C-alpha cells in the first residue's frame, strides 16, 4: 500500500513533461540537479533562523527601540472576576450587547463596567508597541538581506533580462550553488514564520497570512522538485522588494517619524502595485503560462504551479485593496494611521467624557444646594 502511494506520488507525469524521466535528472560530471531530499534542509534552517531572530530582537532591535524612545502604552489591568474570565476564554472575547446584559445579571455589575472589563482584558493579550517594532525590525532585516542576495544571484543570469531564457533546456537545467542557498534561506524563513504565527503579532488578515505562507512553501517545494528554480528565484525577488518597504515603513511609524513613514508608505504603495499587480501577473505568470507551451505539452505540474501562482495573485489583489483603503485615508487625513491589518488597542479607560459628565453632575448639585442656601 505504502509503495503504491509512493509510486503514485513520484509518478513522472505529475512532476515532469513527457519524454522526461527522473533518470534524466541524475547528476553528471558537468551538471548538478535539485533533489527532493534537499528540501529537508529548510527545517534546521528555520530553527536556526528562530534562534537568530531571538538574538536579533533581544540584542539589536530592543536597544534600538530604547534609543528611539519607543515605549509600550500603559495599560489598565482588568479587575479580577472569575465569571467574566471564564466567559472570555470559553465563549468569546467580544460579547454582544445581549451577552453583556446577561453577564451583568451574573456579576451584578452595570453594563459599562462589563464593557470596560472586556476592553481591558482584550488589550492585555495584545502585543505592545516594542514587540511590534522588534518583529518588524527582524522582517525588514531579513527581507533586505534576501533581496540583495537574490539580486546578487540573478544580476548576471540571462533569464533575469529575458524571461524566455527561464525555459531554455528545461527541465535539464543545472542547479547553481547560489540558487540552493537562496531557496534554502527563503524556505527556512517562511517555515519559521509558520512556526511562530501563534507568538507573532496577530493581524486581521491572519488566515490570509497562513494561506500565503503555505502557498509560498508549496510553490517553492514544487518548483524545486520540478526544477522550476529559475522562475522561483524571480518570484522570490519580486516579493521581497516591496516587503522591505512595508516593514521599514512600520519601523518609522512606530518610532513616530511621521514624515519619513509617510514617504516610505508612498514608495511602498507604488512598488507594491507595480511588482504585485503588474510584474507578477503580466510578466511572471505570463512567463509560466505561455512560454512553456512553446517547448512541451502541458502536464499536471504545469497546471498546479500556475494555479498556486494565481492563489498568490488573489492575495495580492486583497492586500492591494487594503493598501488602497489606507492610501485613501492618508490622502484625505494627511496622516498614516498604521497597518490596517493590525489588531489595534481599544480605549480601555472610563472615558474622560463620562468622568467630566459625572463631575458636572456633582458640581451642578453642589451649586444648586449653594443657591438654595443663599435664597435663590
Automatic annotation (TrEMBL):
Coiled coil: none annotated. It is found in: Endoplasmic reticulum membrane; Nucleus. The keyword Metal-binding does not apply. One of its GO terms (molecular function) is sphingosine N-acyltransferase activity. GO terms for cellular component: endoplasmic reticulum membrane; nucleus. Residues 69-129 bind DNA. Residues 131-332 form the TLC domain. Pfam families: Homeodomain, TRAM_LAG1_CLN8. CDD domains: homeodomain (cd00086). GO terms for biological process: ceramide biosynthetic process. Pathway: Sphingolipid metabolism; Lipid metabolism; sphingolipid metabolism. It catalyses: sphinganine + octadecanoyl-CoA = N-(octadecanoyl)-sphinganine + CoA + H(+). The keyword Membrane applies. Residues 67-128 form the Homeobox domain. InterPro entries: HD (IPR001356), Homeodomain-like_sf (IPR009057), Lag1/Lac1-like (IPR016439), TLC-dom (IPR006634). Keywords: DNA-binding, Endoplasmic reticulum, Homeobox, Lipid biosynthesis, Lipid metabolism, Membrane, Nucleus, Transferase, Transmembrane, Transmembrane helix. The chain crosses the membrane at residues 39-56, 136-155, 180-199, 263-283, 303-324. It is a multi-pass membrane protein. This is Ceramide synthase 3b. It comes from Poecilia mexicana.
Amino acid at each position: 500500500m505504502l509503495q503504491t502511494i509512493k509510486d503514485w506520488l513520484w509518478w513522472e507525469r505529475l512532476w515532469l513533461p513527457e519524454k522526461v524521466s527522473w533518470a534524466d535528472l541524475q547528476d553528471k560530471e558537468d551538471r548538478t540537479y535539485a533533489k527532493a531530499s534537499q528540501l529537508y534542509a529548510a527545517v534546521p534552517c528555520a530553527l536556526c533562523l528562530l534562534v537568530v531572530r531571538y538574538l536579533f530582537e533581544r540584542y539589536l532591535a530592543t536597544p534600538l527601540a530604547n534609543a528611539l524612545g519607543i515605549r509600550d502604552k500603559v495599560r489598565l489591568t482588568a479587575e479580577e472576576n472569575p465569571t467574566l474570565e471564564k466567559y472570555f476564554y470559553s465563549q468569546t472575547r467580544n460579547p454582544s450587547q445581549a451577552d453583556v446584559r446577561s453577564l451583568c445579571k451574573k456579576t451584578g455589575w452595570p453594563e459599562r463596567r462589563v464593557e470596560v472589563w472586556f476592553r481591558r482584558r482584550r488589550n492585555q493579550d495584545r502585543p505592545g508597541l516594542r514587540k511590534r517594532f522588534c518583529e518588524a525590525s527582524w522582517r525588514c532585516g531579513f527581507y533586505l538581506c534576501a533581496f540583495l542576495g537574490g539580486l546578487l544571484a540573478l544580476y548576471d543570469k540571462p533569464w533575469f533580462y529575458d524571461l524566455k531564457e527561464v525555459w531554455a533546456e528545461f527541465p535539464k537545467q543545472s542547479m547553481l550553488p547560489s540558487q540552493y542557498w537562496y531557496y534554502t534561506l527563503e524556505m527556512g524563513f517562511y517555515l519559521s514564520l509558520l512556526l511562530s504565527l501563534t507568538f507573532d503579532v496577530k493581524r486581521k488578515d491572519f488566515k490570509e497570512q497562513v494561506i500565503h505562507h503555505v502557498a509560498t512553501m508549496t510553490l517553492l517545494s514544487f518548483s524545486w522538485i520540478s526544477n522550476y528554480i529559475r522562475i522561483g528565484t524571480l518570484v522570490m525577488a519580486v516579493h521581497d522588494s516591496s516587503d522591505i518597504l512595508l516593514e521599514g515603513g512600520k519601523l518609522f511609524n512606530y518610532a513616530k517619524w511621521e514624515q519619513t513613514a509617510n514617504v516610505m508608505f508612498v514608495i511602498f504603495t507604488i512598488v507594491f502595485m507595480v511588482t504585485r499587480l503588474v510584474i507578477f501577473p503580466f510578466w511572471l505568470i505570463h512567463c509560466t503560462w505561455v512560454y512553456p507551451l512553446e517547448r512541451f505539452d502541458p502536464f499536471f505540474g504545469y497546471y498546479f504551479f500556475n494555479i498556486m501562482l494565481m492563489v498568490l495573485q488573489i492575495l495580492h489583489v486583497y492586500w492591494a485593496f487594503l493598501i488602497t483603503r489606507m492610501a485613501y485615508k492618508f490622502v484625505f487625513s494627511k496622516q498614516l494611521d498604521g497597518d490596517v491589518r493590525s489588531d489595534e488597542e481599544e480605549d480601555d479607560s472610563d472615558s474622560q467624557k463620562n468622568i467630566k459628565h459625572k463631575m458636572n453632575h456633582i458640581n451642578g448639585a453642589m451649586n444648586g444646594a449653594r443657591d438654595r442656601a443663599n435664597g435663590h
